[in-house]
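Changelog note: in this version the structure field was regenerated for every chain. One regenerated record is shown below for reference.
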Amino acid sequence: MIVPYSHVFLLAGLLFVMGAGCAVARRSLVMILLGFEIMLNAGAIAFVGAALRWQSIEGQVFALFVLAVAAAEVSIGLALIVCVYRRSGTVAPDRLD
C-alpha cells in the first residue's frame, strides 16, 4: 500500500512546525539545535515525497545531501555548545554575555 502524497506533505509540514516551535520556545541551546534538526528532516521528507510524486530521483538525492548537511550541522553545533558551556558554565542562551 502506498501512502498518499498529501499525507507525506502533511507529515513534513507538521514536523517543520514542531521543529520551529521547539527552536523558538526552548531556553536551551541543545533544544534549539534539536529543533533545527527536526526542521531539516521535515524538508528531507518533503523532498522524498516530491520525488515520489513526480517519479524522479533528484528529490531523493537532494534529501541525502540534506541529511549530510544536518549531520555536519549537529557535530559543529554540539562542539560549539561544549565550548560555550566550558566558558560560561551554562547553555541557556538568555544568560550568555
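Spot check on this record: The mean pLDDT is 91. The two ends are 54 Å apart (CA to CA).
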